């Protein structure tokens, strides 16, 4: 009996688990099978691994070969296990020295000629491996920039299966070309992923930016928005406290332009947040496009987006959607009432918990989804209900139907409501430095730092994450009296009362107060109920 072992990492959402490969070569008719809940891609590894080993100079066993993927209770998906499957089979056939593979993992997809192809999710896989004591990892050379972000692991980049065999002490002779010839003809492994330090909005390398990201348009800045002082202030409050916001106004008033500039006034991401965002992008296969940066992500799905594309979905184990890709950043929903009501309703739980749980046939996948929601809407289907001088062509029934698509529970979870009207003339101080993103961002960072110091023993990063109980306990009687009055007059719901208090604490931070005063809570209630 000949058994060979190797290890890789499987993923369920962003949660990893070590996959133990056991290859068993036994007498019988030639047959290669993989067991242990493999998906279609893992099952197809049989042909990839067999061809890659043959192309690398190894004679495939002419007997029965069985590879077990443990733990058998968890589904294995993707081609990332190809390398480890090949190692386990070669070890079982005594074609490489059998050794203790504990503390060592192999990740990568094999091509039929033995070349090692890049995979998605290498960053979260190695992060899990590091937590489980992995000391050495073999990864595709094209993933090396990404893999080297994880400290404490000796990462070795591979262009070809033969390089892995030689690293493990085996010998091989390629039938068509040598490993060195292949490596020379391959592109450099350090090619595409850019790793950047703290960056300021506007000087980010466009090559690492998605066209959908506002930073990719060549240095957007809040000073480019003419007028709209009220809307800019609302965005400043939203950025300082992490609050959700909806803007309404006629077409062409600047709602989308303002929304695209929200990331430029948000505080930079911390190291842990950068790794979380990079892990999500690695899993989605977009890390090479964005790079690792401290700029918060910005996702703007089209109003025809399906429920699966927004919150995540797909067969088997669900894939992340736009709300997960917007984790620690901004989710902008332009023309919000045009979204499907089912899609809008699916935001309710993530807005409260910061997580999205997707139940599928093969299990439940939980993804992080702590994003800042920013909505924009016209006042009616034609857009000319007010503020333009143009006559509105919508019947009252059409207006009600239009706004009824944004249900009460969704609007109740949005902290700030503001109007964006047409600017009648170009302001004299348009583009001044006081309205620049850099200036506003400094104000936001100062307010966030005050909140961080206040909540550091609780682990909350901003006022939007503070609990209602803590806010009520530390608010003055005069402030609570204003909230009670708004509750008695049905101006606020119980959820709305807590959110108005959070706004009051944010306004206090912006005004330099130790705690909210009556003018802060009055302005907070006004911002929350402006469209009511």
Automatic annotation (TrEMBL):
Residues 182-194 have a biased composition (Low complexity). SUPFAM superfamilies: P-loop containing nucleoside triphosphate hydrolases (SSF52540), Ribosomal protein S5 domain 2-like (SSF54211). Residues 182-225 are annotated as: Disordered. Keywords: ATP-binding, Nucleotide-binding. The keyword ATP-binding applies. Pfam families: ChlI, Mg_chelatase, Mg_chelatase_C. It comes from the Bacteria. Residues 241-424 form the AAA+ ATPase domain. GO terms for molecular function: ATP binding. This is ATP-binding protein.
